[in-house]
From TrEMBL:
This is Flavin-containing monooxygenase. It holds the Pfam family Pyr_redox_3. GO terms for molecular function: monooxygenase activity; transferase activity. It is an enzyme of class 1 (oxidoreductase). Keywords: Monooxygenase, Oxidoreductase, Transferase. It comes from Paraperlucidibaca wandonensis. It comes from the Bacteria. SUPFAM superfamilies: FAD/NAD(P)-binding domain. InterPro entries: FAD-bind_Monooxygenase_sf (IPR051209), FAD/NAD-bd_sf (IPR036188). Its EC number is 1.14.13.-.
Length: 487
């Protein structure tokens, strides 16, 4: 006897900011048959996963929040992890998102059925069907683990920064950190004063700007609460700064001028010419993610810290061997090796109308339309899809995409459409224009290897134009650009 499976109008996968925003905006549009599937037992996304010491945002809080849900009570210019997670959960509660959520429901596969004109989502707790799906899993939750011989046999403890082992006491331990990216520059200064010896393995140095961070006094919080326009003005000013930086990424000469600030930050903090040389990148700022910190360099000059300008080559017992042949002893290894960015992890679980895995179709070079829809996946929308990243707040991307997605679903309802899918000719034209616009940018020509560039050497990550242009292009869903079938 077959069991009937309820058909939902929209299923949202993932309970981070994008997923929560999707539920809120769908319901505002009168679309109430919405279900959010979340693999964990609470909402939070990347801010639930990352709890390492010193974890904080590198976008000012005024801009790192929903435009429709400002928070006048941020305690700092750059909020920390716990505060951001509390904001996220507070927004979900005040906008009544929680009744729409099924916790501990991990999507194993999502497959489009032409017969049923819907998506079949298989979870660890059974199957769900939906006319539309919004994949809001996000790019920063699947850790990249290095393939280092002997690492799995290391005699001490090993963990990734996004799976921080708070039960391990690092006091007076010999700690090795692999990687010097956005996470490492936050947790290294936090643990440096307490560990016995800290060995930092750095394949490539990063440009690090000063972080204009400080506590926000009560008078500012009261001002923001009583005069929301004041906080809106600050948000606008921060947006302008990031928009200027984002625009500069198109001009390598302009970025080299901006690089002088990062060089000043390095020279001010690191007086040893040998160490300073090891910490000076040989590429143009912006080629890799631009980092900000006031305590990264001061931590590295401490007597209990060694900076190894070499990758970790192998591990034997508790001995770490660098690619240059030097050896180091460690009790604990912390992997600050980042996340899978160029290829969205959800792509391994999504199957198109022909039963092909999205990741297999892409073959390492993700491609979509407007960063939001993917070929042969009708009625499916991908948050943070291919070529949608900007050097600014993730909320600008989220809100631009959600305006586009909600408009698509509203038009499908209004016109009684069975399906919406991409037009191959328009997809090809759009991606040709994207790649052409990226050709001379600092991301492509800055002289580095970064997570913006996929394993085939193609920039599958970055939106090459301004965030204002993104907002304009995604302001409404133009059905003429898509293939549609009527019910």
């Amino acid at each position: 006897m077959s069991v009937s499976i309820k058909m939902h109008e929209v299923i949202v996968v993932g309970g981070g900011f994008a997923g929560i925003g999707a539920v809120i905006k769908l319901r505002e549009a009168g679309i109430n048959d919405v279900l959010l599937l979340e693999k964990a037992d609470e909402l939070g996304g990347v801010w639930r996963e990352n709890t390492y010491p010193g974890c904080a945002c590198d976008v000012p809080s005024a801009l790192y929040s929903f435009s429709f849900a400002p928070n006048p009570l941020w305690s700092r210019v750059f909020a920390g992890q716990a505060e951001i997670k509390a904001y996220l959960q507070g927004v979900a509660e005040s906008y009544r998102v929680l009744p729409m959520v099924k916790f501990q429901h991990e999507v194993i596969t999502a497959a489009w059925s032409d017969t049923d004109a819907c998506w079949h989502l298989q979870t660890n707790h059974g199957e769900f069907h939906a006319r539309f799906v919004i994949m809001a899993g996000g790019p920063m939750h699947e850790p990249v683990l290095p393939n280092v011989p002997g690492l799995s046999e290391f005699s001490g403890d090993v963990f990734h920064s996004s799976r921080w082992r708070h039960d391990i006491d690092l006091n007076n331990k010999r700690v090795a950190v692999i990687g010097t990216g956005a996470s490492a520059i936050q947790f290294v200064p936090a643990i440096q004063p307490t560990v016995g010896k800290l060995t930092v393995f750095q394949r490539t140095p990063h440009w690090v700007l000063p972080k204009m961070d400080q506590a926000l006094p009560g008078i500012v919080q009261r001002l923001f609460k009583r005069l929301p326009l004041a906080q809106l003005a600050v948000r606008g000013a921060v947006f302008g700064i990031f928009e200027t930086l984002n625009g500069g990424m198109q001009n390598i000469a302009a970025m080299k001028q901006f690089q002088r600030l990062a060089k000043f930050n390095l020279h001010r903090a690191v007086k040893d010419p040998m160490l300073r040389s090891r910490l000076t990148p040989q590429y143009t700022i912006g080629c890799k993610r631009v980092l900000q910190s006031n305590d990264w360099y001061p931590a590295l000059v401490q007597p209990n810290v060694d900076v190894v300008s070499s990758a970790l080559a192998k591990v034997t017992g508790n001995t770490l061997v660098a690619a240059d042949g030097s050896t180091y002893e460690a009790d604990v290894i912390i992997l600050g090796t980042g996340f899978e960015i160029a290829e969205p992890p959800i792509a391994k679980r999504v199957f198109n109308r022909y039963g092909q895995r999205m990741s297999d179709v892409w073959q390492g070079s993700p491609e979509g339309y407007m960063g939001t829809m993917v070929a042969d996946c009708p009625n499916a929308f991908l948050m943070f899809g291919p070529n949608i990243a900007v050097s600014s707040s993730a909320f600008l991307i989220i809100e631009a995409q959600l305006a586009y997605v909600v408009d698509a679903i509203e038009k499908a309802r209004e016109l009684n459409l069975r399906s919406i899918e991409t037009d191959p000719l328009r997809v090809a034209d759009f991606n040709a224009r994207v790649q052409s616009a990226l050709e001379d940018s600092v991301w492509n020509r800055g002289g580095c290897t970064s997570y913006f560039i996929d394993r085939n050497g193609r920039n599958s990550t970055v939106w090459p134009w301004s965030t204002l242009e993104m907002k304009r292009q995604l302001s409404q869903f133009n059905l003429d650009e898509y293939r549609v079938t009527r019910a």
